[in-house]
Amino acid sequence: MRITRGISRIRMKDKKRKEICHWDRSEIQRSIALLIVQAHNAKYVCKKCGRTAEDKSLLCKPVREKGSDGSLSNS
Fold first, then answer.
1. Where are the domains of the chain?
2. CA distance 63 to 48
């Protein structure tokens, strides 16, 4: 199964920009395809709740995933 970035770009234009950390259950259920794409292509982790996303603006406390030395870095 190939997941493309186009899906996340289209969905984000339709959806009001709100951190996924603050989504309620109904928002999660309506946007499950977006969450799958974001998790699959994740570059950032929320240091508050542990959610992951490709786009750091979707997380409330994003940190970049592993750097070259294996540590997390703030970006």
1. 5-74
2. 10
Would you say 20 and 35 are in contact if contact means Cβ atoms under 8 Å apart?
yes
Q: 53: which 2 tokens? A: 């996303």
61-72 tens-digit pLDDT:
999 977 655 555
Nearest CA-CA partner of 31 in 45, 12, 50: 12
Q: Return phi, psi of residue 3, to 5°.
A: -105, 125
Predicted structure pTM score: 0.63
| Alpha carbons within 13 A on the beta-carbon side of 24 | 1
| Best CA proximity match to 46, nearest among 30, 34, 58, 28 | 58
Neighbours of 58 (CB within 10 A): 24
Measure the N-to-C terminal CA separation of the chain; round to a whole number of Å.
30
